[in-house]
Known about the structure:
This protein is α/β, with parallel strands linked by helices. It has helices spanning about 5-25, 70-85, 100-110, 125-130, 155-170, and strands spanning about 50, 60-65, 90-95, 120, 135-140, 145-150. The protein has a 6-stranded mixed sheet with strand order 1-4-3-2-5-6. The longest helix has 23 residues, at about 5-25. The protein is globular and about 40 Å long.
Amino acid sequence: FSPMSLNRNMKYTAVLLVAASVLLALPQVHAANLKPGDALPALKAKDFEGALPELAGKVVLLDFWASWCGPCKASLPQLDKLYREYGKRGFVILGVSVDESSADMKAFLEAHPVSFPTVRDKAQTLVGQVSVDVMPTSLLINREGKVTKIHSGYQGEKTVEELRAEIEQLLGAP
């Protein structure tokens, strides 16, 4: 090695170490690592197509879905029933479409309409940050903005009953 190449290698090593320490210091939010008590990432800074509802102080079900997802066709109408049942008590569902195309999302919602707000994560920033591996995936969030439960996939009535019990517990007595 020449002194010049050794100096260059040391500079590259120093840059890599700084980059690695910066990456390690960033907050990591992944579904596999997300646990009850973790704060939901800020949604206002994300690049969504559609309007975000007011979520502060509400019990929120953040539901990731896609038009190509078979189980989503079955889950969305059931989630809509929960939304209509508990919405007046401070419960909000925010559907987050991960469709690449706005047209796919709109066509799906025309065929399977829901009354809860839905946005499209057009840049895939939130779905990437949360690391959604299964469609649908839902995050249940308490009034303080902390994740209380993660539901991966949809198992029909079993999922609906689990959600109902969890929502009622978070909302408290009517």
